[in-house]
Amino acid sequence: MIVANWKMHFDYKKALEVGCAIKSKLSDAKAEIAVCAPFVYLKDLSECFKNSNIKLGAQNLYFEDEGAYTGEVSAMMLKSVGCQIVIVGHSERRQLFGEDDNMINKKIKSAIKHNITPILCVGESLSQRQNNETFTIIENQLAKDLLDIKETVIIAYEPIWAIGSGKVANSEQIFEVHEFIKKFIDTKVLYGGSVNAQNAGELSKIQNVDGFLVGGASLDAQKFYEIALNFEKEKGVS
Ligand SMILES: O=C(CO)COP(=O)(O)O
């Protein structure tokens, strides 16, 4: 599974241009492909992704369905514009907007209630890794974020120090964290953090990597396409 996280990029015209280019390049992809776009572009992207295998995703949600929550967007609303996937607990939201595990847990439950597949992001900071706290941090995030949740949640392992830094985690680091996550919950685990067209093939060789959550390189349809292609080649997805 290869997921684009566009973060807060593009104006309307560019979002539709890149979204539609991704659709035309990847509509026959064997790997599962999803694009997580800013809220305001979702409706039109859902039109563009119609009759293709590309899934539509959001990058956040609020856990209540409706009410006096100025500026928020609910799972019910996302579902009504064709959203099938939602990223929850991205480190940027945890760090910049103080999103805590309790809130993340409620968001995941709300997504599931509306039949939207959550992608839960977990990962350690550089200082946590240097202090040998990686597994404690990840176990803590998984335990709290997935409290009382039995349904399918996709996990993305995104070491904070690897995001947007050009510093990719090495194969051993990724393998052992994915193994740890899979012991906690038997599900798909994606890797995220400086994935690009050049390193995607090598990263795909890691047996327990089930796909990628791609930031920067997903802003270019050709680069995103090459990542998916290299993944399919290495994994023998056909
Ligand atoms: O945060 C990420 C995806 O959610 C990763 O971002 P980059 O691919 O830009 O490092």
UniProtKB/TrEMBL annotation:
Catalytic reaction list? D-glyceraldehyde 3-phosphate = dihydroxyacetone phosphate
Q: What is its EC number?
A: 5.3.1.1
Superkingdom, according to UniProt?
Answer: Bacteria
Q: Which GO terms describe its biological process?
A: gluconeogenesis; glyceraldehyde-3-phosphate biosynthetic process; glycerol catabolic process; glycolytic process
What are the catalytic residues? H90, E158
**What is the annotated localization of this protein?**
Cytoplasm
InterPro entries tied to this protein: Aldolase_TIM, TIM_sf, TrioseP_Isoase_bac/euk, Triosephosphate_isomerase, Triosephosphate_isomerase_AS
Name the keywords, alphabetized: Cytoplasm, Gluconeogenesis, Glycolysis, Isomerase
Q: Which residues form a coiled coil?
A: none
Provide the binding site for substrate: N5, W6, K7, G164, S194, G215, G216
Recorded GO molecular functions are: triose-phosphate isomerase activity
Q: What does this protein do?
A: Involved in the gluconeogenesis. Catalyzes stereospecifically the conversion of dihydroxyacetone phosphate (DHAP) to D-glyceraldehyde-3-phosphate (G3P).
Cross-referenced PROSITE patterns, in alphabetical order? Answer: TIM_1, TIM_2
Q: From the UniProt record, report the name of the gene that encodes this protein.
A: tpiA
- One Gene Ontology cellular component: cytosol
Q: Name one Pfam family in it.
A: TIM
Q: Record keywords: Isomerase included?
A: yes
Pathway given in the UniProt record: Carbohydrate biosynthesis; gluconeogenesis; Carbohydrate degradation; glycolysis; D-glyceraldehyde 3-phosphate from glycerone phosphate: step 1/1
* Subunit structure, interactors included: Homodimer.
Q: What is this protein called?
A: Triosephosphate isomerase
Give the record's family classification: Belongs to the triosephosphate isomerase family.
